[in-house]
Specification:
Tetracycline Repressor, domain 2, 298 residues, globular, Four Helix Bundle (Hemerythrin (Met), subunit A)
């Protein structure tokens, strides 16, 4: 085995790419967008550009911290899954030392402090709770203990919408609460679709995801039920101020997701599961864009 120092054998761009990979930035960007949707969709005067930028950076930084902790905590488990065994902590591309924990904690502190100073304490609290639920409640407590792990852990995404709503209305407002409910209901069918496609991986890693515990057929029916509940919940914000553009986006995306879920029930196999998974991404994207356009054009 070579003893040449890491800095001499790998370029800085390669190391940076691995570090960014730890942060799960694709998920983080989507969570950041949901926070901005909470800002735009909540009735009231929009905060200043500095507050909006601080909120976006805070949510992205907190999400990156939680994503890094997820990979740090699950490195042994990731080694047993084909989908994750190339992650940097698994391959040794980045040494898994306790210094990473200090870095993650510092990132979270900076994120929460920035939201507290430039937005308000309630928004900062939601930013913290989002990271806590993903890194602590889901990753450490629930993931290896119960097939309902992603149901409760899915609350992590809901807090981003609430943080955005709090930037506009520090008191509770119905629209961000309903959009948080939509995110909460979206997560299980979205993730269970992917878990059906990768059922063997989760079984080999000993993770009790729903398809592993009850089988793909029953899990597919749970996905269908979840998409129907999601579609109904996604229409509720129309009663509290969102208009025709939002309604069209929520209906279009929701119906596609339900249709793909119904196909998954008929054919609970990898190909159908991945189609359902991508339909979930389409549904959320249409809903986010429609909510922002609706308020911008109102």
């Amino acid at each position: 085995m070579s003893t040449v120092p890491l800095s001499l054998t790998r370029s800085w761009s390669s190391v940076l790419r691995d570090v960014l990979g730890l942060m799960k930035l694709r998920i983080g960007v989507m969570i950041m967008v949901t926070a901005l949707m909470g800002v735009v969709a909540t009735p009231g005067s929009l905060p200043g550009a500095r507050a909006v930028l601080a909120l976006a950076v805070s949510v992205l930084l907190a999400s990156a911290s939680a994503g890094m902790f997820n990979q740090y905590h699950e490195a042994d488990e990731d080694q047993r899954m084909a989908r994750t065994r190339r992650r940097a902590f698994v391959t040794g591309a980045l040494p898994r030392t306790r210094w990473w924990l200090l870095m993650m904690a510092a990132m979270l502190v900076v994120a929460v402090a920035a939201a507290w100073v430039f937005v308000n304490p309630l928004a900062a609290t939601y930013v913290f709770l989002g990271a806590l639920f993903y890194g602590g409640v889901y990753t450490v407590w629930l993931k290896r203990r119960t097939p309902l792990n992603i149901v409760i852990g899915g609350m992590a995404g809901s807090f981003a919408v609430l943080a955005g709503g709090a930037a506009v209305a520090p008191a509770s407002a119905p629209v961000p609460l309903l959009l948080a409910l939509v995110l909460f209901l979206w997560t299980p069918p979205h993730f269970w679709s992917l878990a059906i496609a990768n059922r063997e991986d989760y079984a080999q890693a000993g993770v009790p995801m729903l398809p592993v515990v009850v089988g793909p057929e029953r899990a597919a029916r749970a996905v269908l039920l979840g998409t129907v509940l999601l579609l109904v919940a996604s229409l509720l914000p129309v009663a509290f101020g969102l208009g025709a553009i939002y309604l069209a986006g929520a209906l279009a995306g929701g119906l596609v997701f339900v249709w793909r879920a119904a196909q998954l029930v008929r054919q609970p196999e990898r190909k159908s599961a991945m189609r359902c998974f991508f339909a979930s991404l389409l549904q959320l994207s249409l809903l986010l864009v429609a909510a922002c356009l609706d308020r911008a054009l109102a």
